[in-house]
Design a protein that fits this description.
Elements (H helix, E strand, L loop, with lengths): L3 H7 L5 H17 L13 H12 L4 H9 L10 H8 L1 H14 L10 H11 L3 H16 L6 H21 L3 H15 L1 H35 L6 E6 L2 H10 L11 E7 L2 H14 L1 E2 L5 E2 L12 E7 L3 E9 H9 L7 H4 L15 H5 L1 H4 L28 H4 L8 H15 L3 E5 L5 E5 L4 H8 L1 H5 L1 E6 L2 E3 L11 E5 L9 H4 L3 H10 L16 H10 L4
Parallel strand pairs: 2-6
Antiparallel strand pairs: 1-2, 3-5, 4-5, 5-6, 7-8, 9-10, 9-11
Helix pairs in contact: 1-3, 2-4, 3-4, 3-8, 4-6, 4-8, 5-6, 6-8, 7-9, 8-9, 8-10, 9-10, 10-11, 11-12, 20-23
């Protein structure tokens, strides 16, 4: 079991108060779960302790680590909200409640619901730390998935691969994304995983010796150019990522050049471009294979130079060049910006609820689809006297917003309400009694909900409950509603349903059940242009 000393060792120079808080939470959680066991037979507290260590390694603040230690204690009924608030404060309770809420949203493998659930997780997380705790929780659960009953393993792995790994990617947490993918892959498709494993093993064996020679060669060249503060490492491609690329390349191994890549990490942006010049002068670059993610960062904040070169020692080699700061962000993403000590404490009561609210808006711009009428202004600069290294590209807007801590509850509340209004302006996110997410257009009714699940359920629907109360079939559904559809074999649609249904899918199935023909598209008759041409000919002036 992870000890409290190991957790504290991962923390970044914790203050005596923070260390004492974590120590207290560790003992509290250990006592709360003293009689609980995992599927493996181990004490249950093995899990929250491991999650807390992961959070500490990510550089999270003491409150987040404490919430990681206690994230299951309330849900399992071991302690009350009041006890947590009394012992650790409302901020910790707020984070635990957020994680508990996320845990209620389940995904059962329907691909069309994956993006809906990802959007919902983002939209309902008032604090990004909640998502990070959830990722740490999921990561450790995946490392011990072999102890979970077989019938549950695939569902959990699929959920991890399709929901949580993409979330980690959008948060810029590259290491977490890769690990979640590679932990899920062998559970979902063991044969494909074994194939990717063998391919990587084969290609690595072919290129490893050559890459080591290239590495030493470049180290000498960098020294000649006066570069002293740099380090190099060999990066291996993840198994899931390799599998996806093999599929795109028709399983042609010769077309894959980035199974092993050489990474150069330097101190400044200027050094990045100096290193790039050395690489291109020493090896022939392949045309069209250079990408400058420093000048043009990826949407999740990733920055690096990528180039592919031809070497005698290792053949075709991908090389990446970045600064230490870029490397840290590439590994830990948004977590590398989550130093709440640096952000400072907001003055108002309950200000912890406002920390990182602004991260949501820019997290996935294509998802949120803000109204064009809503002005987007640059985030304020915390320290205008701070000088950036020459050539430094500005951080993406959503990352820079992390430093914008709201100081008044009114302002934050207004922002969140506007965010929700914009985000949910066209869709509603609903739940089945089992926790599955159904994504429907605004103003959809229980009829649309039933047909979205299955045509048979819609065809035999006889009643609907929304949040435990019986409702009429034409009731507009709202975000977060739990909808329970009742069915009987004798149930069947009526013609009135066509007016109540808002989705084309529902109306199509209703017409089919009623044996009504599909409405033919209205075809506009072609205008008779003959008379118009004759008229124009008459009006044509004589030469």
């Amino acid at each position: 079991m992870t000890t409290v000393k190991e957790i504290l060792a991962e923390m970044k120079s914790p203050s005596p108060a923070d260390a004492a808080l974590v120590q207290k939470a560790y003992e509290f959680g250990l006592n709360a779960h003293k009689d609980d066991k995992r599927y493996s037979g181990e004490p249950y507290f093995v899990h929250p302790a491991a999650a807390a260590k992961i959070l500490a390694a990510l550089g999270m603040d003491a409150s987040t680590i404490v919430a990681g230690l206690l994230h299951d204690a309330i849900e399992d009924g071991k302690v009350t909200d009041e006890e947590v608030t009394k012992e650790f404060g409302p901020e910790v309770l707020f984070l635990i409640q957020g994680v508990t809420k996320l845990g209620k949203h389940k995904y059962r493998g329907a691909e069309r619901h994956a993006e809906s659930l990802r959007r919902l997780l983002v939209a309902t997380s008032a604090d990004v730390r909640v998502l990070i705790i959830k990722l740490a929780d999921r990561y450790h659960n995946m490392t011990t998935i072999e102890h979970v009953p077989k019938e549950k393993q695939r569902r959990i792995a699929l959920e991890t691969l399709e929901i949580y790994a993409p979330l980690a990617d959008r948060l810029g947490m590259g290491r977490m994304k890769r690990d979640l993918e590679d932990l899920s892959f062998p559970v979902i498709d063991p044969d494909a995983y074994q194939h990717a494993f063998e391919v990587r093993k084969l290609k690595s064996k072919e290129t490893e010796a050559g890459l080591l020679r290239v590495q030493k060669d470049l180290q000498r060249e960098f020294a000649r150019k006066g570069l002293r503060n740099f380090r190099t490492e060999i990066r291996m491609k993840g198994y899931w990522s390799l599998h996806q690329k093999l599929k795109r390349k028709g399983d042609d191994i010769t077309e894959i050049h980035d199974i092993a890549a050489l990474r150069v990490i330097v101190q400044s942006v200027d050094d990045c471009y100096t290193v790039l010049g050395v690489i291109h002068s020493r090896f022939r670059p392949l045309p069209g294979e250079f990408k400058d993610y420093i000048a043009f960062p990826k949407p999740n904040g990733y920055q690096s130079l990528h180039t592919t070169v031809l070497s005698q020692e290792a053949g075709v080699v991908e090389m990446q060049v970045r600064t230490e700061d870029m490397h840290r962000r590439a590994q830990f993403g948004i977590a590398s910006h989550m130093s709440y000590k640096q952000l400072g404490k907001a003055a108002s009561k309950g200000a912890f609820e406002m920390l990182s609210l602004s991260w949501i808006r820019g997290l996935v711009p294509t998802l949120l689809n803000f109204s064009k009428k809503t002005p987007v202004t640059p985030a304020p600069v915390a320290d205008k006297t701070m000088k950036k290294p020459a050539g430094t590209a500005p951080l993406p807007y959503w990352l820079s917003e992390l430093a914008d801590v709201h100081t008044t509850l009114a302002e934050s509340s207004e922002f969140v309400e506007r965010l929700k209004e914009d985000f949910f302006s066209h869709r509603v996110f609903l739940f089945t009694p089992k926790g599955d997410v159904i994504d429907l257009p605004m103003h959809s009714t229980p009829i649309d909900f039933a047909y979205a699940i299955h045509s048979d359920l819609g065809d035999h629907m006889v009643g609907a409950k929304v949040n435990g109360k019986m409702v009429s079939f034409d009731t507009p559904l709202r975000n977060g509603d739990i909808v329970d559809i009742m069915k009987r074999d004798s149930g069947k649609p009526t013609a009135k349903w066509l007016d109540m249904a808002k989705t084309s899918v529902a109306r199509k199935h209703i017409r089919s059940a009623l044996d009504l023909p599909e409405r033919a598209p209205v075809v506009q008759p072609k205008p008779d242009t003959r008379k118009l041409r004759q008229k124009l000919q008459k009006k044509k002036p004589k030469a």
